[in-house]
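step: validate -> pass
step: tokenize input -> pass
step: predict -> running
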Amino acid sequence: MINYIFGFNQCYMINKRIKILFLFLFASISVFAQYTETINSNRPGFSQGAFSVGTNVLQFETGFGIGNEEHSILNKKTDAFIIDYNFRYGIWKEELEISFIGAYQSNSISFIDSDASSKERNFNTNTIGAKYLFFDPYRKRQIEKPNLYSWKANNSFKWKDLIPAISIYAGANFDQADNPLTHFSDNDLTFFNSKSKKGIEISPTIAIATQNNWGSWVFVINLIGERITLDEKSYSYILTLTHTFNAKLSAFIENQGIKSDFYADQIFRGGAAYLVSKDFQVDAAFLINYKDTPSRQFGRLGISYRFDMHTNDQYIEEKGKAGRTKKRNKKNYTKKKKNKRLDGINLGNKDGVNL
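step: predict -> pass
step: emit ->
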């Protein structure tokens, strides 16, 4: 009887461990693919995450903002209305997405010390680009065997958790040469002798995006060089920290620093997003800046929606020497399997003929 009870308990413990092992395996499999069951939006922040939307997923992110700017030196006040949009599509591989990012702004300008007023409308940006994930540390971490006996060992902080996923983005900007929102004009104080231009100017934008996933926290860094071949070239960084409270609600804070001869600033944003369904998200955010030339305050509302045509997950294979070794071993295994007879006896290959 004692042996029976001991054997039963032993089988129970083995089955329990097997279930835990399968739980870890299935959890790790979901991380190998870029595609997620719920929408993966860059809104309501302005940074780009390192990961793509997944192959055959078309995602639309858009919103509008209302706010004002006041310039203390020019005594100028601007009431602005902005519409922004972002089309993202996962193509070819799980690591790759292409995108079309843009914004349109309408300004009503008035001067504090006079009755003069004016209006200006144009695009802030229109950029076609692509983003590619070339380093994903989470893939290798999921391959590691979990500690089945210690929750603390599996969930405690490790220095390697500071290593982020890294993507590179490259795009082409399409700007009107006489656009006052993006280019120097005759009305600028320091560039009043510049000649007006006509036509469309094409310039490159490059960026590096990193992303750390720490449980319910996500930290994203963007380093951006924009319009780098023009006089109005700018360099900026964006730091975004997002916290998920539950399966539906998340909030973020963000800091963006911009350095350019055309415009320089320190911008702070905050807001929240709510997941209506697995393919639909709504969000709200606000913006303030540091300086008063001009000072800026904006409110922003938006939505994200995806058309999910994703079928099968393309699991990202390990790269480098380890990845090549795995592929070689897989090919050797396939060859051995072909040479094996139905009776289980492998006679090998002689003169190109399977025996």
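step: describe -> The chain has three domains: 1-32, 34-308, 322-355.
step: cleanup -> pass
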